[in-house]
Amino acid sequence: MSCQSPYVADHLIAHRGASAYAPENTLAAMFEAKKRGARWVEIDVKLTRDGYPVIIHDHHVDRTTNGTGLVAGMTLQDIRALDAGSWFDPAFAGEKVPTFEELIETVLALDLGLQVELKPTPGDDTETAEIACATLLRYWPHGRGRMFMTSFSERSLSRAAQLMPDVPRAFAVVVPPKDPRALLAEVNCQILHCTSDMLDDDALARLNDSGVEFAVATINSLEDAKRLLAGGAQTILSDYADLAL
After folding, report:
1. CA dihedral of 153, 154, 160, 161, whole degrees rounded to 10
2. What is the DSSP string of 35-71?
């Protein structure tokens, strides 16, 4: 475990971009996050059937596009033909599911920090990490920093650690661990990310007492955000990129 702390020197990461104001995980959501004052964005990387990394959260395209089916069952060409904006608002008609390359170029142009969530479809955990890392090694400027990877998948994070050992990693959990420091050591990660579902006062105190860097998702209430930050969280993820922390 490194003594560097915190790895993410900002209290807010815009969850899937400014997803309260623009369709999540689209380039429009990244521009909106910047416009509303965010300094970091979080995105999700999944693989198409033909092995291209695209920016989408769900296993299926149904919720956030006008298509149906598994991301892992569609080619890049199939995915790119979809409308990823109209479901959110007609004003965003024609928004595409971005490629990872496009996303990186946009984030760099906007001078944002980037949380890359490796979101494998069950079975392609290792491949998702390999292709995501290959893309980052090609397009993310060496030495720039302000980027880390996260996942619920231990296999994805393990492969990422082998390929990009200098990039911080966050392990994502639903149940706050009894011993956060031991868990991070076991999975070879530096940061813990928790969903808010089961994060009661006792769990928050346990995380704070452990001394690990931790973040909480997804927090859309200013009151909740302030309580969590006061309770020791370094960062919260929010759909509201302009949450006034």
Report:
1. 160
2. HTT-SEEEEEEEE-TTS-EEE--SSBSTTTSS--SBG
H or E element in which residue 32 lies: helix 27-35
Beta partners for residue 57, in sequence order: none
**Other Cβ atoms within 10 Å of 106 Cβ, number:** 20
User: Prior bond to 23 cis, omega within 30?
Assistant: no
Q: Is there a catalytic annotation at residue 142?
A: no
Please determine, for residue 2, whether its predicted confidence score (pLDDT) is greater than 90: no
Nearest to 188 by CA among 163, 206, 209, 207: 163
Owning domain of residue 70: 12-238
Is position 244 within any domain?
Answer: no
| Active-site hit among 57, 60, 142, 193 | 57
What is the CATH classification number for the domain harbouring 222?
Answer: 3.20.20.190
Q: Alpha-carbon distance 209 to 74, whole Å? A: 45
pTM over 0.90? The answer is yes
Q: Is 15 a catalytic residue?
A: yes
Q: What is the pLDDT of residues 193-204, one digit of tens each?
A: 999 999 999 999
Q: Is residue 146 part of a domain?
A: yes
One-character DSSP codes across 130-179: HHHHHHHHHHSPTT---EEEEES-HHHHHHHHHH-TTS-EEEEESSPPSS
Give a yes or no: residue 216 inside a domain: yes
The chain-wide mean pLDDT, for the chain, equals 96
Q: Is 245 a domain residue? A: no
How many domains does one find in the chain?
A: 1
Q: Which of 15, 60, 142, 193 is catalytic?
A: 15
